[in-house]
Amino acid sequence: MCRHIAYLGPRTALGRVFSDPEHSLVVQSWRPRRQRHGTVNADGFGVGWYAEGDPAPARYRRAGPIWGDLTFADLARVVRAEAALAAVRDATLAGAEGEAAAAPFTAGPWLFSHNGAVRGWPLSVAGLAAELPPSRLLSLPAATDSALVWALVLHRLQRGDDLGTALAEPVREVAGAAPGSRLNLLLTDGTSIAATAWGDSLWYLADPPAGRVVVASEPYDDDTRWCEVPDRTLLTAHRTGVVLTPLKETVQ
């Protein structure tokens, strides 16, 4: 499994969200409190953020554990953004693919992360892969289950689907092809967030008066405003609110 987190809100240092809190993503990389599968997320990490006036996010990734990267500590201290997404990785296949497999994946204005595993990978989803354009398969960033899920999501985004639909439909497809898969997905375009709870924990912290929302695998502190998202649910969020939709329902 993995841990991931996305932030929308007032401009802030990345460290205030990803590394400073008592139970931050950095701490979750070696001592998660609510992770149901695996205990250490040391197979790489990444962070993506949006600079003012630029719709394409910047990204920093490494193959090793986040706690040992002093450059990230420096970046988190000085880089400020109004939107960001970060993840720490516990590889489905230990050590597979290195930095190229570390989330967030990116294309255009989007940042994406997958917390989970596709059961029976890769044979279970060979049929879904075959439905993608060959160029999409040839440009996979890594030969991993998460990269294929990202390709399915990106295919929908680039044909015009909204963030929620672009996540919900691949989750249904992969879950149908590979029952028992864990498919907690997280996606942002810098102005909104979409996420799915499917097989592991997902939480959100909404503060509409401040124009701030955080969506994460687990809370990074003990603020009583954190809310758990029920399993089999699609979350869509803006700075002013959060909507939860059961995934058994059709997403418009």
TrEMBL record:
Superkingdom of origin organism: Bacteria
Catalysis: reaction(s): gamma-L-glutamyl-hercynylcysteine S-oxide + H2O = S-(hercyn-2-yl)-L-cysteine S-oxide + L-glutamate
A UniProt-annotated Pfam family: GATase_4
Top enzyme category: hydrolase
Pathway: Amino-acid biosynthesis; ergothioneine biosynthesis
SUPFAM superfamilies named among the record's database cross-references: N-terminal nucleophile aminohydrolases (Ntn hydrolases)
GO biological process, alphabetically ordered: ergothioneine biosynthetic process
GO terms, molecular function: hydrolase activity, acting on carbon-nitrogen (but not peptide) bonds, in linear amides
Signal peptide span: none
Enzyme nomenclature, EC number: 3.5.1.118
Keywords: Glutamine amidotransferase, Hydrolase
Annotated ranges, domain Glutamine amidotransferase type-2: 2-252
HAMAP family found in the cross-reference section: EgtC (MF_02036)
Function, in words: Catalyzes the hydrolysis of the gamma-glutamyl amide bond of hercynyl-gamma-L-glutamyl-L-cysteine sulfoxide to produce hercynylcysteine sulfoxide, a step in the biosynthesis pathway of ergothioneine.
Protein known as: Gamma-glutamyl-hercynylcysteine sulfoxide hydrolase
Protein species of origin: Streptomyces globosus
